[in-house]
Amino acid sequence: MYYNVLAKMNKMDIEDILPLHDTQVALLLPYMVLNKTKIGFEQQAYFISGIKDINAIKKAFGVLSRYHQSLRSTVHYIGLTRPVQVIHRQMDALRVVHYTDPQKLLHDLWNEPMELSQRAFEVTLCQVEAEKLLVIFRYHHLLFDGWSNILILRGLMQIYHSLVFRIPYQPTNVLGHRAYYSYIRELSEMKHNSFWTGYLKNPPTPIFKVKQIDILKKFEQSDLSYTLTLDECSCLASTAMQCGITPAVLFCLAWALVLKDLYNLDDVIFNIVLSGRDANLPSIETFIGPCITTAPLRVWDMHSCSALKLAQKIQNDLQHIQANQYVKDPGRDAIFPQTMVNIQNYPKDLDLPDKHYKVDLYQSKYANGFLLTLNVFTLDFQYIVQLSYDANFFSKENALGVIEKVREVVASLVRDLLN
Questions:
Q1: Is 134 exposed, middle or buried (0-12, 13-18, 19+ CB in 10 A)?
Q2: Which of 283, 323, 354, 402 could bridge across to 175 with cysteines, CB 3.0–4.6 Å?
Q3: pTM of the predicted model, to two decimals?
């Protein structure tokens, strides 16, 4: 079955070969169809302070790679009936570069092609000051979710500390990709039920009159962002708790109301990202891999319902969506939302091994192929709100209007949702 893949490789270097599951195949499709597309690729950059020995960091990544299969994987599809992930026994996915301008480095890396059959993940290190590194993860999203970035950082720092101070490293139990993919396949084969058919019946027409393939062909992502203050974050969390909803629901409601106000809509469908970390598997919370799924969320009757009632309905719908996230359905497959909400619920505590280490998010970039995406990152107990937009479809002025509307609606919900 995998002869075409094996024929070009050293068989002794292969640990396992796994067929991609449905979500991974969907993420890979733009790469397969459109030459040199950035859609599906992500780049995360962090400043790490307190690093005295860059060689120890390099060794630490080598140790971490031995435990986690995604860090030494490639992806293949040419000549195969289904794309596969090849897990190698070892892979050199780290490099050290010398740049004086971090922004130029990030720009150059983002525009550097990545051939998935050669590597689907890489780490770039750049010394920016004494004891301060810029660490950049670049990868295709079909192998990692946002949560994995924090797990990689945590593992990297724990192993680095153990090497520098000669302390035995105690790894957590590691979930293998074969076990995880088997679990996902079992869920995807669940018997069809009526949830998606009823939920997506008579869907609204797309907001923007443009074909999906035309979006993908010309997609060029740009980003705008703002950070909520600690006081604003505290008020948001308090309001959500008093209303019996999660902060994620509040942001989903905010996005629905933004679309309603900007485009005079009463019924909207947008994609949401689900973490998949609720899987009934041991060590799922420390699994470095592709746990995410996406699913359509529908919000309607916005002109007649109160904001609190809409929030409660979204919370209830999300419970059903979570339970049916892997269920295949023809009606669901036919829906192509043009916007998305992505709540990156990273672990709030990096669990760094010593207080003199410090990690700061510098840049997060992900080309997802949606015209508009509301990203909400949680890091250091704060919310970073980012609007990603297709620069071929929206001007920066238009995008600024959208993110200002997001800021306005979020603040208004925090202030008035209980009234």
A1: buried
A2: 283
A3: 0.86
